[in-house]
Amino acid sequence: EPEVTQTPSHQVTQMGQEVILRCVPISNHLYFYWYRQILGQKVEFLVSFYNNEISEKSEIFDDQFSVERPDGSNFTLKIRSTKLEDSAMYFCASSENSGGFGGELFFGEGSRLTVL
Amino acid sequence: GESVGLHLPTLSVQEGDNSIINCAYSNSASDYFIWYKQESGKGPQFIIDIRSNMDKRQGQRVTVLLNKTVKHLSLQIAATQPGDSAVYFCAENEAAGNKLTFGGGTRVLVKP
C-alpha cells in the first residue's frame, strides 16, 4: 500500500539552528500538507501546498517556516532558527484531491523535533 | 505517538462491546468531518468521513453520526477489538478551506 514517508524520525537540535524535515508524499498525490502536534496537544495545521505554491497557512507558519518541493518526489519543511516551542511531532500528509470529501489525507508517521 | 497526553479523556471498553466516541465542533461553516485513529508511534490514520449533507455513514465496523443542529459528531465502533486501542481524533474542514482542524482526541483502551 502506498504511504507517506518522513525523515528523520527524530531530530535533536540546538535552539537557533536550522532544521529541514523531509517527506516523500504518495506519488500520484497533488496536495501536500504539514501538521504538527506538541506533546499532549491537538494536531495543528501548518500549511498546505499545491501546484508549487502555498495554498493556505496557519498563524503558526510564520517567517521562520518555509516549504519546498525541490524535485518531483520530496516535500520539505524548513525551520530557519528553531525555538524551544518548536519541539513537536511534525506530520506530513498528502492527498490526491483537495482534501475535502473524497480527498482523504494520508499522513506519514511523523518526525519528532526536540529543540534544546 | 505524540498524541499521548496526560489529560486525554479515556474510554475503557470490554473486547466485543461497542464503543462510542463523541466530538463537539464549533465552526458552523465546516462541511466535512473525518475521524482519525492514531496508534502509538504512528501518524493519524483515516477511518471514515462524512459530509455535512449527511447525518450517518457506515463503514466496516464503524459508523459516523453527524448532528449539525448541536454541532456534534460521534464514532461508533462495533465489536471493539484489541487492535482498536488507540487515540481517536475528529477533524473538520471548511468548504472554502483546505485545512483540517483537529479535536483534542479520546483514548480508547480495549480490555481483553
Share in helix of chain A: under 10%
- Give the terminus-to-terminus CA distance of chain A: 37 Å
Instruction: Give a short account of the largest sheet of chain A.
Output: 7 strands, mixed
Q: How is the biggest beta sheet of chain B arranged?
A: 6 strands, mixed
Structural class of chain B: mainly beta
Tell me how many strands of chain B there are: 10
Query: Span between N and C termini of chain B?
Result: 22 Å
What is the mean pLDDT of chain B? 89
- Number of H- or I-type helical stretches of chain A: 0
Radius of gyration of chain B: 14 Å
Strand content of chain B: over 45%
Radius of gyration of chain A: 13 Å
Q: Which parts of chain A are unreliable, with pLDDT below 50 for 5 consecutive residues or more?
A: none
Order of helices and strands of chain A: EEEEEEEEEEE
C-alpha geometry of chain B: globular
Average of the residue pLDDT scores of chain A: 92
Sheet-strand content of chain A, in percent, reads: over 45%
Q: Tell me the greatest interface.
A: A-B, 34 and 33 residues
**How much helical structure, as a percent, in the residues of chain B?**
under 10%
Helix-strand sequence of chain B:
EEEEEEEEEE
Q: Total number of β-strand segments of chain A?
A: 11
Can you put this structure into words, describing what you see?
The complex is a heterodimer of chains A (116) and B (112). Chain A is an all-beta fold. Chain A is 0% helix and 49% strand. In chain A, the strands form two sheets. In chain A, strands 2, 4, 5, 6, 9, 10 and 11 form a seven-stranded mixed sheet that branches. In chain A, strands 1-3-8-7 form a four-stranded antiparallel sheet, with no helix packed on it. Chain A is globular. The model of chain A has no long low-confidence stretch (mean pLDDT 92). Chain B is an all-beta fold and 112 residues long. Chains A and B meet through strand 4, strand 5, strand 9 and strand 10 of A and strand 3, strand 4, strand 8 and strand 9 of B.
